[in-house]
Write a structure and sequence with these properties.
Elements (H helix, E strand, L loop, with lengths): L4 H12 L4 H22 L2 H17 L10 H22 L32 H19 L3 H12 L4 H8 L3 H28 L1
Helix pairs in contact: 1-2, 2-3, 2-4, 2-6, 3-4, 4-7, 5-8, 6-8, 7-8
Amino acid sequence: MSNDAATDRANLLDLQQGEAAALNRLIARWQRPLTSFAYRYVQSSADAQDLVAETFVRLYQRRMRLRPDTNLSAWLFTALTNLCHNHHRWKRRHPTVAFGPPGTDAHSGAGRGDVTTEPATLEPSPDAVLARDESLDALKRAIDALPHDLKVSVLLHHYERLSYREIGAITGCSERGVETRLYRARQHLRQELAGFFRETFAC
């Protein structure tokens, strides 16, 4: 993620002064990292894209309320994490049946190839592919089951590579608090995945 806050502030000022192209510049600048985070949170390409689009809609609607020195990256991620959290809770209350093979995104029709697109130089054995996919699925399920504050901290730190300070700005938490959340998240994940690996290697 880029740390050029001055560019964000300049684009925000242009947007507030009525320059429509400034929103396009902000979208081009932030769409990819925001979508990456949203996809890992909601685990659906279509839903992630919709939530990111809603984030930019909210930015435009609330542009005049923002201070000139607003940390725009923190604002965008804060808005998106709240949208993801609300969406995730709604989905849990209104589960849907996915049509398609296991591991397929029911909305986009894309499978696990969405997660990694790097070409394989060596073809792994079917057993190795199955074990890897099962491990990835177990990790995704374990992260998905984390409480919201722990889940957001893990996704921002381990996938978006944000510092404790940046995560704190997004979550409204101190750097020490972020460190504590990450520690608790790792403890949760170890406990969840320990059971999975015990069952796997017992077979």
